[in-house]
Input
Amino acid sequence: MRVINRHPGPALRLALALAPFALVLLAYAVASDLRLAVNPADKLLPAPSTILDTAAGLFTEGDRRTGRILLWHDTWSSLLRLISGVGIATAIGLATGLCIGLVPHLRAGLAGFVGVASMVPPLALLPILFIVFGLGELSKIMLIVIGITPVLIRDLSQRVLDIPREQIVKAQTLGASSMVIALRVALPQILPRVIGAVRLGLGPAWLFLIAAEAIAADQGLGYRIFLVRRYLAMDVILTYVAWITLLAFVMDWGLRALSRRAFPWMEAGL
Amino acid sequence: MSFVTAHDIFHAYGHRPILERVNLSVAEGEFISIVGASGCGKSTFLRLLLAEERPDRGVISIDGAPPAREPDRARGVVFQRYSVFPHLTLEGNLVAAEGLGTRWGRLHGAARRAARERARATLERIGLAHAAAAYPSTLSGGMQQRLAIAQALTARPRILLLDEPFGALDPGTRVAMHDFLQEMRAETGMTVFMVTHDIQEGFKLGDRVVVFDKPRWDPQFPDAYGATITYDFDARHGGIPFQTLKEDTRVLQSA
Output
């Protein structure tokens, strides 16, 4: 029987899904053990138990100077930046995407510009953003916006163009104006695509967020990671990385669940 | 007497003529079937009637009105696919047929309730009342086309344009749809243009069958000339004009 035709049963499927995680953890544990056996003071690969202890402390114990639990404050300020940036980018992307997809004059004027703008490496603009918007929240949010908006516009305008011509014509024969077609025909049909595009955009958004925080911030998940790097505090870094991964995964999962619930008319394919 | 007129239509895509010297005059309430080989401009002619495109030369007018520049409420249309809105329920699709023409594309209050009432009645009428709250993707192809025709008629167009509406249906469903279309037409007295590949279907449903073909043909350069109307059959009484078929005797008698 060909391998492409062999399917795992439910139990095996679960085991196979968990196997890579288990393997990575195992490999880390073994490597850490080997290094610690040679040098008990090794900081590079702290023992899993050390990481867990550190993690428990990070989530529950306040800072010695201020008494604030830094991890929650970092999470809060990072999420605020991330969500503002992604939210603004989505609003701009949706509006511009609808315009480009529906109005030929705007398409002629904007499509080429957006195509070129999306090729500008956003991180290369970061110094400019720091100079123009200062080192506060605005420059970080702007980096996320500048980083993911062009991609969102390109994706969403293409989605609008993908709406069958028949439906646009049908709406016209029912008397719909351009604005009504945009709001009642095109917008509802690309909303599920917006969620898909945001899910894809969250990856780069985290990247830009952490890069901006690493360079200039006084709070935030990326700031903390790059701060404790100086003390080779691998246990803290690994805890933060795992926490960021969990946050990103929960967001992605939440968006997928939302699109399933909110758009029952979409056939499978999200 | 003539309700829809097409006068000396010429239409080309780039340097490729599609239609040339097309003249057609249609009385109100007539059912015109448009047949012809693939690539002979049937669908192009329908797009011109729909005003989705404007002819390079010539004029199409409905009831003496100036030629339309874009699709409007005078023209109802049903395509082979994608004719209903997938994001609206069946009832929503019929309400949208009344609501999309308003300023914000939405009816409110009493007008909305009345439209929903009418939508319910229409769904009852077309046998889809049980699925009023369902989305079109859950329906079969025949049901979707029935909804599409009802939706187009809800907007009360002057002419109804059908672009191979039953092309994607299986033969049994197709016959049922023929009955449905004939009933709807008997009720509304609508002027209908239907493009079809199926000549039998054209003669069964149409009052006239119009054939598009290329009268001139250059074997070295098939794209050199466009198509025009080469035949215009009277399709009443099964394509046997001036005589009626008596079911009981099966003898032809003069009408």
Q: What stands out?
A: The first helix of chain A runs from residue 10 to 38.
